[in-house]
Design brief:
There is one protein chain. The protein has a 5-stranded antiparallel beta sheet with strand order 9-8-7-4-10. A 4-stranded parallel beta sheet has the order 11-1-12-13. Strands 2-3 form a two-stranded antiparallel sheet. The two termini are 50 Å apart. With 468 residues, it is an alpha+beta fold. The protein has 16 helices and 15 strands.
Length: 468
């Protein structure tokens, strides 16, 4: 399977496609990267006469494709049109792929960023020797974990029965055109309990493709949490619980970048701002800026006035001090009646897009929001068809909008019992679940608006078995 995956990758590469090999372990990744580079040198695609040593212990020369593994706001990626680090997408990020123009004797690399079309940018930038040694690797092969954030034309994935489904999902969604899996049918030596071995197979007997895929689908690498108590693992990858977690991960990363870009744009890249970006408490600023934007405050315009009193005191601008000042301004502004009401996706998840400009982040978030909205309706329709007890337990005046809101709550927080909202969340539950429970409980006790007042108003839940 390793040979088959590599051969397919080589065909794609020689056809001019950007392609990625994905393996389960670092040893396999290193072997594949070394093999790929050797073949590319042999056909003249890579120059081995001058090379630089990378973080993975391998070397890179002119023509090699490499990947950066660490955000550095002070290193331009060649797309910035203003001062260093000022422009959105203007700095080096984790997962970006590059083509090497020159390997320098001091250990630095002159590279060009690969665009979404697979072609290198016109602008060459230099990655310093220290950054190269610590954070740059060959990009022909990688693990599924490190493939997150990488996009290519095709991907070729090596997988056996020990691979976790989360890793398999990541690996099989890297390629824009095609994603092919190469399943190893040899029985795994370790990593599976006896209950996960296929029924009827003798020890040491080769598995079938279906058995390997079933093992992957039932093998989760995620850590248990307070909400992972759902008894039926029905389409977990498409559940609101999973989609909301993915959306929040994307939003957190995107708002971290946006907050840094905001400070650089408003205050410039002087020593005080650069120190602020490196502050261990910078995440507090990110949270405060995000909350202000969610509340409808034009933080881009307000920020200079918020920071001015802090700067006038003559003390160093700190993340804690700036975050507190932003929060105070947000509270005072919203208390005065300004700002806006939060937009909730499917009635339960705050819209995190305000303030974001990165097109890839916005697309990723909006795709998940659309899936969450569709999932809420699908859960309601599914439970209606199944005659779920929770639907019969709804108040008589409940309309479809409110029932859909309850369905979204149940899917997000893994509620499976007959009570519409399950038990009242205890102290171990998250703040978000407590807030959702209070808001939806209030919606269930609020009289339904007259017909036509809402887009999806239907007959009351007294006829829920027929109308919902």
């Amino acid at each position: 399977m390793t040979d088959a995956a590599y051969a397919a990758w080589l065909v794609d590469t020689r056809a001019g496609l950007s392609s990625l090999l994905i393996a389960a372990d670092n040893d396999s990744v290193r072997e594949l990267n070394e093999r790929a580079r050797t073949d590319l040198i042999a056909v003249g695609a890579v120059d081995d006469s001058g090379t630089v040593r990378l973080h993975d212990g391998l070397s890179a020369g002119r023509g090699d494709r490499v990947v950066t593994r660490q955000i550095d706001r002070y290193l331009t990626d060649g797309t910035s049109t203003g001062g260093r680090g000022r422009q959105a997408d203007g700095f080096v990020r984790n997962g970006q792929q590059w083509v090497v123009d020159r390997a320098r004797r001091d250990g630095s690399l002159t590279v060009r960023l690969l665009g979404s079309d697979g072609n290198p940018s016109a602008t060459a930038v230099t990655l310093p020797a220290g950054y190269v040694r610590a954070n740059v690797e060959l990009a022909y092969a990688t693990t599924a974990h490190r493939a997150q954030g990488m996009t290519t034309d095709t991907s070729h994935v090596l997988a056996d029965a020990t691979v976790a489904r989360e890793s398999f999902y990541v690996a099989m969604t890297r390629g824009r055109r095609a994603n092919d899996a190469y399943l190893v049918l040899d029985p795994p030596k370790t990593g599976l309990g006896d209950h996960q071995h296929p029924a009827g197979s003798a020890a040491g007997e080769q598995w079938t493709r279906g058995e390997v895929l079933h093992a992957i689908a039932t093998n989760t690498g995620a850590q248990s949490s307070a909400h992972e108590v759902i008894e039926i693992e029905q389409d977990r990858a498409g559940s609101i619980e999973q989609l909301a977690a993915e959306a929040e991960t994307i939003a957190s990363y995107a708002h971290d970048l946006a907050a840094g870009e905001l400070l650089l744009t408003v205050f410039g890249d002087g020593p005080a701002v650069l120190a602020l970006l490196d502050d261990d408490q910078f995440h507090l600023v990110v949270t405060a800026v995000r909350s202000a934007r969610t509340a409808g405050i034009d933080i881009d315009t307000a920020l200079p006035g918020i920071a001015r009193p802090l700067q006038a005191r003559g003390s160093r601008l700190t993340a804690v001090g700036l975050a507190d000042a932003i929060r105070i301004h947000t509270t005072a502004t919203t208390t005065g009646g300004q700002g806006r009401s939060r937009v909730l996706i499917a009635g339960i998840l705050p819209d995190a897009t305000p303030g974001l400009t990165d097109p890839q982040m916005l697309t990723a978030l909006r795709e998940r929001y659309e899936l969450i909205e569709a999932r809420a309706a699908a859960v309601l329709d599914r439970d209606h068809i199944a005659g779920a007890p929770w639907l019969r337990a709804l108040p008589a005046a409940t309309d479809r909008d409110t029932a859909r809101l309850v369905a979204a709550y149940r899917d997000r927080w893994a509620i499976t019992g007959p009570a519409p909202l399950g038990r009242v969340p205890d102290r171990a539950a998250s703040f978000s679940q407590h807030a959702d429970h209070r808001r939806i409980s209030a919606a269930l006790t609020t009289p339904v608006a007259p017909a036509g007042a809402t887009q999806h108003a239907t007959a009351p839940a007294a006829r829920a078995g027929r109308s919902l």
